[in-house]
């Protein structure tokens, strides 16, 4: 990714690199000849000089390099094994190879993609927990969210309705407590659209910044051949991706924070009405007690990691580079936060499925039963204590591979069609096509824009080509 982004910058034609050298670099990339680059060493201003210098080192035949054919070896040997020659640098080309924000941005791309994946699946995990804790779906009513039309909140509420719609894929669990005396649920269940929703909006905001950054020329100086000028500027400064990735870490962490509280509710018999720590013969078996401790530890660690690195700056280069972004650390710790979020949600997913065991023979909704079956295909129920780490790792892999969301596209589409029309032909408030959930780009008009009036509208939300307001 790092090499691909650097090629993208060089190809824009403002870096002062020859076409011959650029073609050589592209040939190395196409042959998967990838230089060794350490993750530490950048302050995120004047570009990622240290990491990109390691990248350039491999390109000129120095240092270590990896390819599928050779594995790790001396760069010169790896290039020879692929019939390639090291780059012989011409004037300006050394600086052209090492000045830019591609280290921050490449890690940022991974962070955004993983954050997007776990945010979608967090809704699924939370919906399953809500079923186990016998929560109500009333809090996800369209009219409630019409009064606070943040896009992320609307999307999350829609997903919850799609997963929990017992009218069209009945939940025997929901039916069993339909007439209970409970008025409302705890915030960790009731407020998922509001809490998960802002995470989705945060990811969308950060994705926009990272997308612009990875397609930008971030060299210095910039060579404007048409003007015959070479101008020193500041496009190398990593403040944009640094601030964005600090923001991403703060936002995505909340999914773990609220998940850990739901795990507590699942494990606490006074809150769940299930056996303590979700295991029979409590006392002889500790069940999910230690797994919950692990989740709490990961959440606590995230709190420290969420301290913004971009609030720090140190003067370097004899006070010429006297303000820096620290974007490299922002990117690295964002990935650590995301991994912890994935692990906490993996624990919640296992705990929710274990809770289902104590509600059998009752079944949940069809889509959530599919999620349960998926988990049970890799992790069996707990009857007695056993080594839990492999099970958590298996659930983590399901989330990493996004398998938990695979069976649900059909139910989301069905819910969309069901909510799009009512008897009198009116369009319901939030009949939005959530292409973002299904992995495609949003193709409708703005969620807050009426397709008829082209003005903000808090009642009708209609994609282009759909029914008019």
From TrEMBL:
Keywords annotated in UniProt: Histidine metabolism, Lyase
GO molecular function, one term: histidine ammonia-lyase activity
Domain of life (superkingdom): Eukaryota
EC identifiers of the protein: 4.3.1.3
The keyword Lyase is annotated on this UniProt entry: yes
Protein name in UniProt: Histidine ammonia-lyase
A single cellular component GO annotation: cytoplasm
Gene Ontology biological-process entries: L-histidine catabolic process to glutamate and formamide; L-histidine catabolic process to glutamate and formate
Matches recorded under InterPro entries: Aromatic_Lyase, Fumarase/histidase_N, HutH, L-Aspartase-like, Phe/His_NH3-lyase_AS
Reactions listed under catalytic activity: L-histidine = trans-urocanate + NH4(+)
Entries under NCBIfam families matching the protein: hutH, PRK09367.1
PROSITE patterns: PAL_HISTIDASE
Family membership noted in the UniProt record: Belongs to the PAL/histidase family.
């Amino acid at each position: 990714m790092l090499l691909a982004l650097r090629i993208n910058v060089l190809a824009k034609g403002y870096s002062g690199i020859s076409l011959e050298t650029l073609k050589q670099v592209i040939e190395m990339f196409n042959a998967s000849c990838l230089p060794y680059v350490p993750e530490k060493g950048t302050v995120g201003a004047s570009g990622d000089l240290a990491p990109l210098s390691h990248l350039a080192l491999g390109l000129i035949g120095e240092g270590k390099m990896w390819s599928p054919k050779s594995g790790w070896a001396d760069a010169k040997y790896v290039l020879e094994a692929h019939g390639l020659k090291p780059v012989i640098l011409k004037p300006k080309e050394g600086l052209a190879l090492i000045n830019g924000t591609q280290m921050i941005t490449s890690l940022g791309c991974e962070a955004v993609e993983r954050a997007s994946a776990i945010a979608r699946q967090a809704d699924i995990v939370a919906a399953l927990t809500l079923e186990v804790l016998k929560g109500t779906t009333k809090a996800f009513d369209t009219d409630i969210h019409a009064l606070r039309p943040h896009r992320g909140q609307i999307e999350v509420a829609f997903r919850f309705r799609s997963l929990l719609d017992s009218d069209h894929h009945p939940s025997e669990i929901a039916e069993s407590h339909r007439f209970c005396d409970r008025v409302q649920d705890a915030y960790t269940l009731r407020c998922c659209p509001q809490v998960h929703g802002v995470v989705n909006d945060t990811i969308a905001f950060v994705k926009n910044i990272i997308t612009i950054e990875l397609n930008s020329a971030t060299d210095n100086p910039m060579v404007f051949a048409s003007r015959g000028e070479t101008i020193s500027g500041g496009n190398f400064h990593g403040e944009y991706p640094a601030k964005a990735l600090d923001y991403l870490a703060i936002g995505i962490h909340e999914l773990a924070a609220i998940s850990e509280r739901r795990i507590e509710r699942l494990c606490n018999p006074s809150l769940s009405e299930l056996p303590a720590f979700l295991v029979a013969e409590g006392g002889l078996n500790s069940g999910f007690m230690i797994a919950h401790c692990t989740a709490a530890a990961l959440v606590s660690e995230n709190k420290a990691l969420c301290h913004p690195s971009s609030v720090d700056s140190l003067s370097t280069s004899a006070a010429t580079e006297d303000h820096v972004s620290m974007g490299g650390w922002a990117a690295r710790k964002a990935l650590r936060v995301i991994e912890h979020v994935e692990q906490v949600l993996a624990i919640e997913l296992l705990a929710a499925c274990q809770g289902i065991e104590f509600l059998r023979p009752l079944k949940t909704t069809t889509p959530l039963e599919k999620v349960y079956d998926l988990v049970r295909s890799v992790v069996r129920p707990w009857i007695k204590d056993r080594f839990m780490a492999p099970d958590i790792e298996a659930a983590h892999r399901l989330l990493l591979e996004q398998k938990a969301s695979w069976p649900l596209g059909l139910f989301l589409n069905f819910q969309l069609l069901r909510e799009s029309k009512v008897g009198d032909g009116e369009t319901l408030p939030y009949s939005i096509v959530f292409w973002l959930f299904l992995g495609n780009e949003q193709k409708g008009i703005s969620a807050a824009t009426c397709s008829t009036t082209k003005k903000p509208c808090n009642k009708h939300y209609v994609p282009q080509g759909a029914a008019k307001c």
